[in-house]
């Protein structure tokens, strides 16, 4: 860099021209050169100072722009807790200009004593060198209302390395909490809708069994009614015979004749079988009603140890009432396969899977329909497979078969919710429900559940 000529050098040269006598030229030139070097360094220092001032100003503007653009509230306090710096977000929240905020204690902006106590504890922790503290505070907003905020307090160090104050990053949580409440309400509504859908599907499954159940109930009820009518006739005979005994206690011949005419010996012999048959019919009716009650109240059950083999047995017994005549079910019970769950919900899942298998077989039009149900345990898991030789699942539908309202059945033949609800019920049991197509034809659904250990032998 070529510097301008020093004014001192020009002055000295003029002085030498006017007084040339008695001057050591070499000495003067040395002084002049030194002074020129000093002047040159001063010029360089001034340029460097201007450059650093420009960089400092740019840095300051950069920091100010970042602070101003922050949506979170930023508060910088000194060691005494007075506000030294605040961004526009704080001014907008509390409705005060920056000049009205600077120099005030932070606690002036807090709405209650609990917030002041939390802020004091956070400041103490920061000065003790602890990591940033997250606290819940309430600030006074522009409407003079308490606003909930999440605040993080971090220590601030001065040039001397000592604690110079704190930096607060504050985020209002009122909108977040309001959104969370709305989300929770939407979630609760969705859960209610889900329960209604489960109930609707359960009633649909129950409706499919009504015809078979009505026939099943008709048999024992007819049996009981027939026995009751017989018992009613026998009671009339016994009453007539007992009344005759009271009227003619000493006429043995008449008593014997009446006994034979009323067939009292036959009545007495037939009574036990009539009573046993009536009890059996009533018991069968009670079992059917109990099964219906258990099936219809499955959503109210608490999870408890369940024997899957027994659940499959009961489900097959129920489904035989709607089982097409051309379908044969293959099933071999397995001992000691227990899970923790709701018996009714598991029965609903198996009912849906069996009904799907029946529908697929009927749709395929195969001569002899086959359904295979297998149960096995492996390690800590238990597997239930329901396979059929029906139409199978279209390849483009395998990924959607458990989607709500998806169905490949004709209109009016399904709600499209059975498999979706079954999938959710198995998930609630910490299990997995999956589907695949069999190479031999048809589909296979597999329920994978965590197995309970076998009960201890007494």
Structure explained in plain terms:
- The longest helix is centred in the middle third of the chain and has 74 residues, at 174-247.
- The chain has helices at 7-18, 25-69, 88-94, 98-101, 113-127, 174-247, 252-261, 264-296, 308-319, 343-364, 418-428; strands at 73-78, 83-86, 133-140, 146-157, 163-172, 304-307, 327-331, 338-341, 369-378, 381-388, 432-437, 443-450.
- It starts with 6 loop residues before the first helix and ends in an 8-residue tail after the last strand.
- β1 (73-78) and β2 (83-86) form a beta hairpin.
- It is built from eleven helices and twelve strands.
- The chain is an alpha+beta fold and 458 residues long.
- The protein has four domains: 7-66, no CATH class; 70-172, 2-Layer Sandwich (Beta-Lactamase); 202-296; 301-450, Heat Shock Protein 90, CATH 3.30.565.
- The strands form three sheets. The protein has a five-stranded antiparallel β-sheet with strand order 2-1-5-4-3. A five-stranded mixed β-sheet has the order 7-9-10-12-11.
């Amino acid at each position: 860099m070529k510097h301008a000529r020093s004014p001192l050098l020009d002055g000295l040269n003029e002085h030498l021209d006017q007084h040339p006598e008695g001057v050591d030229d070499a000495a003067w030139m040395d002084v002049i050169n030194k002074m020129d070097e000093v002047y040159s360094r001063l010029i360089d220092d001034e340029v460097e100072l201007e450059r650093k001032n420009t960089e400092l100003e740019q840095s300051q503007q950069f920091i100010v722009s970042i602070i101003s653009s922050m949506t979170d509230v930023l508060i910088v306090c000194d060691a005494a807790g007075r506000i030294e710096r605040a961004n526009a977000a704080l001014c907008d929240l509390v409705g005060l200009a920056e000049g009205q905020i600077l120099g005030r204690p932070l606690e002036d902006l807090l709405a209650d004593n609990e917030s002041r106590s939390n802020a004091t504890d956070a400041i103490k922790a920061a000065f003790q060198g602890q990591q940033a503290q997250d606290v819940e505070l309430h600030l006074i907003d522009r409407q003079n209302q308490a606003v909930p905020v999440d605040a993080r307090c971090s220590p601030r160090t001065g040039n001397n390395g000592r604690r110079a104050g704190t930096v607060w990053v504050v985020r209002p949580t009122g909108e977040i909490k309001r959104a969370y409440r709305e989300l929770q309400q939407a979630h609760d509504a969705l859960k209610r809708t889900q329960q209604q859908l489960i109930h609707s599907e359960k009633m649909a499954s129950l409706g499919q069994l009504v015809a078979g159940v009505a026939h099943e109930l008709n048999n024992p009820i007819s049996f009981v009614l027939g026995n009751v009518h017989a018992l009613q006739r026998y009671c009339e005979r016994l009453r007539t015979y007992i009344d005759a005994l009271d009227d003619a206690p000493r006429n043995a011949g008449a008593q014997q004749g009446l006994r034979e005419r009323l067939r009292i010996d036959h009545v007495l012999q037939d009574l036990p079988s009539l009573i046993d048959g009536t009890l059996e019919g009533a018991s069968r009716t009670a079992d059917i009603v109990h099964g219906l009650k258990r099936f219809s109240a499955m959503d109210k059950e608490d999870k408890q140890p369940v024997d899957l083999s027994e659940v499959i047995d009961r489900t097959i017994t129920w489904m035989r009432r709607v089982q097409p005549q051309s379908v044969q079910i293959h099933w071999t019970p397995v001992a000691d396969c227990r899970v923790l769950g709701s018996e009714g919900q598991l029965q609903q899942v198996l009912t849906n899977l069996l009904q799907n298998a029946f529908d697929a077989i009927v749709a395929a039009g195969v001569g002899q329909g086959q359904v295979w149900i297998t149960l096995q345990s492996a390690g800590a898991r238990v597997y239930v497979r329901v396979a059929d030789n029906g139409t199978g699942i279209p390849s483009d539908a395998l990924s959607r078969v458990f989607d709500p309202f998806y169905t490949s059945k004709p209109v009016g033949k399904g709600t499209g919710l059975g498999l979706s609800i079954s999938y959710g019920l198995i998930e609630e049991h910490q299990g997995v429900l999956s589907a695949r197509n069999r190479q031999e034809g048809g589909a296979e659904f597999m329920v994978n559940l965590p197995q309970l250990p076998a009960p201890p032998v007494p």
